[in-house]
Write a structure and sequence with these properties.
4 strands; single chain
């Protein structure tokens, strides 16, 4: 894996996720904060991993990830600071594991690679 799409409106969080993924060998990134930007970024460069955060400025990160993965098998991780709120958002979604806290991202990426 080498390219990750990070969808979150908080750039500090996005950069922290990016640094963690760099330590795991990811080489390129698209950091976006709206659903539309996420879809456009995936159209330009299909990610090997999608990481979504708690919020996006407009649209829904979960929906953006779903639209991308409808046509491409890409693992999706949700990183959150509020597990309860994230679980509520995912209630209607198919989720095998997660959401994950930022300090659990290494384990989450390993899990995504084996799925």
């Amino acid at each position: 894996m080498s390219h990750a799409l990070i969808i979150d409106e908080n750039m500090l969080i996005s950069r922290a996720i990016q640094r963690r993924l760099e330590m795991l060998g990811f080489e390129s990134f698209d950091l976006v904060w709206t659903r539309q930007q996420a879809l456009a970024a995936a159209g330009r460069h299909m990610p090997d991993l999608i990481v979504i955060g708690d919020d996006v400025e407009t649209g829904c990160a979960v929906e953006a990830a779903r639209r991308i993965t409808d046509h491409h098998a890409v693992p999706v991780l949700m990183v959150t600071g509020d597990y309860t709120r994230a679980r509520e958002r995912l209630e209607q979604q198919e989720a095998l594991e997660g959401p994950f806290l930022l300090n659990e991202i290494e384990a989450a990426v390993e899990l995504a690679n084996t799925a």
